[in-house]
Design goal:
transmembrane; Rossmann fold; flat; alpha/beta; 3 domains; 16 helices; 11 strands; two-stranded antiparallel sheet; 7-stranded mixed beta sheet; transferase; about 50% helix; Sugar transferase; single chain; phosphotransferase activity, for other substituted phosphate groups; Bact_transf
């Protein structure tokens, strides 16, 4: 089977060609005449299009079906029945979309008989296509790869693996204490040598060259660049990832997984959820920035009049898969507030008074107005409206030492608000915060996002009123 971008191209081409073929078949005069013999269908007018109308019908149907199948273009190990179910779901979504187009826009409508006839045909041919090009699930796979930074850990987990391993990838420094680059392994009770196929930077090349189906992680130190780089490569090439249960602290795994090795949930949410979420982010950020523009001008003037310093300040935060990005806020502290202390959590996060906060800054923090510039990060795609609150990399190293599950929050895009924020939990209580964050990763949905946004807006109003009252007294 094809992998990576070749799989994407093959799957897209199949949807386009089979959809166009199906439209051509159902518009055949003989087919439509036979369909009219069915009692229910004989009420629909038989009107096979010709010329430009026929071309537009093919283009519209193909475009809609190609779009609704986006979640299935990324290669994933799936069982045949799962593929059939997913394809049927997409075909039905596409058929409803075609019917809706015909209802709202007559210029691009498809005849009702065409929609009725093309749907069952696509329910047959498209599942066959995707089953034919599918990647076999893990139980049927024949080629696996060990990837990590600890060869000694490899030798510990190898006896429990029931997958044939073609070799391993490890950084050079991990092998300095060894006399050679081969590891002792077992295969059916016989001693064999497991060969090193290169460093971690060769992950993508080896996945393709060796036709790898499964990667088994064996990291002693989950460095954000190397560790999440491996996960990203597996995600792009449709390779499943497993990890020993005793070393699963840094990854998301199914809650009901059994056995010594568990699957890593590289993509915890369906791509359709991502698309809906991204669409909401764009609308939310655009409307927010436009509506709050006069407020932003007023804040900028107030900051300048207060101490004459800079209006915005910039901070580096942790993003998806451990990457980093810059966020901007309205400055609420004195200039160079961390020059003497270094990166620290504000005393206000623990409910105390931070002397570094300016007069205007205290109002901004009480009303959460200092967060407005982060809508630009949402618009750019670095953040989402809802998700785990991004933390500063300088502070996360200390947090990780005490909270083993902290890296699991890196599997989703950070957000402006989330369950932890609406419940008033900050980085001063990382153990409670991570429980809320992982709860969101498991339960995320568009209605849940809307609920959290509404709760956060209400919280902002309550905090603003409370701050106004306290300032008056």
């Amino acid at each position: 089977m094809e992998r990576g971008w070749r799989y994407r191209g093959t799957s897209v081409l199949g949807v386009v060609c089979l959809t166009a073929f199906a439209v051509g078949i159902v518009n055949n005069t003989t087919i439509q005449t036979l369909a009219m013999q069915i009692p229910i269908l004989n009420r629909l007018p038989a009107d096979p299009p010709v010329g430009l109308e026929y071309t537009m019908e093919i283009l519209v149907t193909t475009a809609v079906m190609t779009g609704v199948f986006i979640p299935l273009y990324k290669p994933r190990p799936r069982r045949a029945l799962d593929i059939v179910f997913l394809v049927h779901k997409r075909v039905l979504v596409g058929s409803f979309a075609l019917a809706a187009i015909g209802y709202f826009d007559y210029s691009y409508r498809l005849p009702r008989l065409t929609v009725v006839l093309v749907t069952p045909l696509l329910l047959i041919v498209l599942p066959l296509w995707f089953v034919g090009i599918r990647q076999q699930p893990a139980s049927d796979q024949a080629r696996a790869l060990l990837v990590g930074d600890d060869p000694e850990l490899f030798t510990q987990i190898l006896p429990e693996l029931d997958l044939p391993i073609v070799g391993y990838l490890a950084p050079t420094q991990a092998l300095l204490a060894r006399s050679d680059s081969r590891l002792p392994a077992t295969d059916g009770g016989l001693n064999v040598d497991l060969e090193r196929l290169g460093g971690l930077s060769r992950i993508e090349d080896v996945l393709v060259e060796q036709d790898i189906d499964t990667v088994v992680l064996a990291f002693n130190q989950a460095d954000r660049a190397e560790f999440f780089g491996v996960l990203d490569a597996c995600y792009e090439h449709g390779v499943s990832v497993k990890v020993h249960r005793e070393h699963a602290d840094s990854v998301l795994v199914p809650g009901d997984a059994v056995g010594p090795f568990v699957d890593v949930e590289i993509e915890p949410w369906d791509l359709q959820d991502h698309l809906i979420k991204r669409g909401f982010d764009l609308v939310f950020a655009t409307v927010g920035l436009l509506c709050l523009l006069p407020v932003c001008l007023g804040i900028a003037i107030a900051i300048k009049l207060d101490d004459g310093g800079s209006i915005l300040y910039q901070q580096e935060r942790t993003a998806l898969f451990g990457d980093r990005f810059d966020v901007y806020k309205f400055r609420s502290m004195i200039e160079d507030a961390e020059a003497q202390t270094g990166a620290t959590i504000s005393d206000e996060d623990a409910g105390e008074v931070d002397p570094r906060v300016t007069r205007v800054g205290r109002v901004l923090r009480q009303t959460h107005l200092d967060e407005i510039p982060q809508l630009w990060s949402v618009l750019k795609g670095d953040m989402s409206a809802v998700g785990p609150r991004p933390e500063r990399p300088e502070l996360e190293s200390a947090i990780q030492a005490g909270v083993g599950d902290w890296q699991k929050r890196w599997f989703v895009k950070p957000g402006l608000t989330g369950p932890a924020q609406v419940h008033g939990v900050t980085g001063a209580d990382p153990e409670t915060k991570i429980r809320y964050d992982l709860e969101y990763v498991r339960d995320q949905s568009f209605p849940y996002d809307l609920q959290l946004v509404i709760m956060q807006i209400l919280k902002v109003f309550r905090d603003a009123i409370a701050g106004f009252r306290s300032n008056r007294t």
